[in-house]
Design a protein that fits this description.
The protein is α+β, with helices and mostly antiparallel strands. The protein has one domain: Glutaredoxin (3-Layer(aba) Sandwich). Helix content is about 25%, strand content about 20%. It has a five-stranded mixed sheet with strand order 2-1-3-4-5. Helix 1 links the parallel strand 1 and strand 2.
């Protein structure tokens, strides 16, 4: 079995594909460059992976974010405000400090979704 040299606690995947962040389709922007820069600036990459994906679906929900860990995946949808992305970065910092994924901030309770229904 292959193993990484790093101890990774999770991975955040931000969709920026055919619909998510497609401002020309009247969808809210995804601050992908800011997120990448912030992830690096805060030193998160070695412990909490970050990926901008072309599409994770489902495309009827704008601005999807997926958080993967050894315990499973959490899907968030309708992440439309810059402050929400800032809150996710702050949450990732707290997770790295704790050494494991902690509960998502309450503000995302109504953004949790089940894409495989």
């Amino acid at each position: 079995m292959l193993a990484t040299k790093r101890t990774v606690i999770g991975q955040m995947i931000v969709c920026q594909g055919c619909c998510c962040g497609a401002t020309h389709k009247d969808r809210p922007p995804v601050p992908a460059d800011w997120l990448k820069d912030e992830w690096r600036r805060r030193g998160l990459l070695k412990r909490f992976q970050f990926t901008v994906s072309g599409c994770v679906g489902p495309c009827d929900v704008p601005n999807v974010v997926v958080v993967n860990s050894e315990t499973g995946s959490k899907w968030l949808g309708h992440i439309t405000q810059f402050n929400q992305y800032r809150s996710l970065v702050d949450w990732a910092v707290h997770c790295v400090e704790a050494g494991h994924l902690i509960e998502l901030p309450r503000e995302f309770k109504d953004h949790l979704m089940e894409p495989w229904r």
